Amino acid sequence: MPKPKTIQLRLKSQAQILSAFVSAFRRTLITHKPAPSDHERLAEIEEGAMRIWAHNVCLYFDDDVVLRLKDFVADLQVLDPTTPFIPELKDSYVINIREGQIRLSAASLEALMGRYILPSAGSPLKDARLSISGDRMILRAKARKFGLDVPITMECEVSVGPEGMIELLPQRLAVSEVGIGGMIKLFNLELDRLLEIPPDAPLRVSGNQITIDPAGIFPSPKAIGRPTAVRIERGELVLAYSGPAPAEAAPLLDPQAPNYMVCMGHDLLVGKMMMHDAHFQIVNQDPASHLDFSLDHYRSQLAAGSSSLHAGDQLLVRLPNLGPSTRGGTGPI
Questions:
Q1: SS3 string of 282-303?
Q2: What is the H or E stretch that residue 11 is in?
Q3: What is the dihedral of CA 224, 229, 230, 231, to 10 degrees?
Q4: Which of 105, 181, 205, 223 could form a disulfide with 192 if both were Cys (CB 3.0 to 4.6 A apart)?
Q5: How far is the C-alpha of 73 from the C-alpha of 75, rounded, in Å?
Q6: Per-residue pLDDT, 189
Q7: Which of 42-51, 238-247, 254-263 has the lowest mean pLDDT?
């Protein structure tokens, strides 16, 4: 039988651990039953799914790939419904987009291009640099051809094609800063002759047109869904999604919050704390033009933030935005 002193030490240690959790998160995330008002909404969400509403949210896939979400609604589907949603396990769930906007800056597009799109397409280009000017995307890179690294520059218009594919149509194509219009006749040289792309890549080239499958350009977690419109607006690429019927309004705990992310549905696991049939809203801790949420750094955000439990075991979470040391180089300030 353990000695009384040993039992006291164990109890003291357990109390210290509990106190640390309460200090970091203010209230435990453990709940067991949804509020009665949530029953109808939860019944509409598929097993293993968590519905997400996001408005003015900068979602950090990693430190350099940032998606600005506006009036965005999606279902986050855990691949194994018997397990809870754990945000940092990016390969364990997918995001089924229902409606809203995803906005990408040139810096985020360049990071996507260099880290994910081009490697999955066999790295046909190197030293790729991407910028946006007016209503065009400008890509500067080097293509390996004739045993040489051939510098190319493309100015492309963007549009949405059949089945929601993103189409880039070069309006100006140059090799070594010399217009290639005449060279196409002389050498029968087109973009698809410069770039060798595997057939299963998310990027395809036909003649001088580039087609990109938007479902294949994002790193994990994979985003499923194709846009109904694509445009360039205020220096960003905008992917707009719409469904057959408008999504229901977000069940807000703080209706006055200008920026928010609301989640409802599947179980959530953060560290050792489980929230069953989750319903929580994330808002800014301090006034800001947007809300940051990082899949890599959200625990640090939680530790620096606060939370309060509402009636019906609903949680309101207040997070600080990311500082420059954790935000990387592509997110807004």
A1: EEECCCCCCEEEECCCHHHHHH
A2: helix 4-25
A3: -150
A4: 205
A5: 7
A6: 59
A7: 42-51
